[in-house]
């Protein structure tokens, strides 16, 4: 019996060690599964964001035809171009004439070469100096050009940026109609 009693304590120690080792292995396995689950949840969140972005893009592109139709028939919006503000390039060029200064006469300067002419390998005839009397002084000239064109197209483009004359007339008429009853009430109050 003494031998069994001695082995009993060893058996208990082995059982406790086995239980501790199995608990450690189980907790390690649980943490590995938890990390894998968090990675899957991250992938799901990224997939949801991608799906949301793709749905938004799909809805936007599917509505583009409707937006273009509205723009073509109702809004008539266009990107701004020079024709909305100026009649052409010549009118644009005429705007800067005040800022241009005449630079005066052009002065030509030449220097004498003191080297020997035999050492040169370049023909003298190629580089003949220009006669200063025949040169014209460069000047900026103003030019204007009126384009005969369709005023209806221009009026249509201006309608985008400005109020229509008919619309302004409607507003003025309504304002006058609103003003009349107010003036009549003031006159009635003044007479009493």
UniProtKB/TrEMBL annotation:
The keyword Coiled coil applies. This is Cell division protein FtsL. The keyword Signal applies. Residues 30-57 form a coiled coil. It comes from the Bacteria. Keywords: Coiled coil, Signal. Residues 1-32 form the signal peptide.
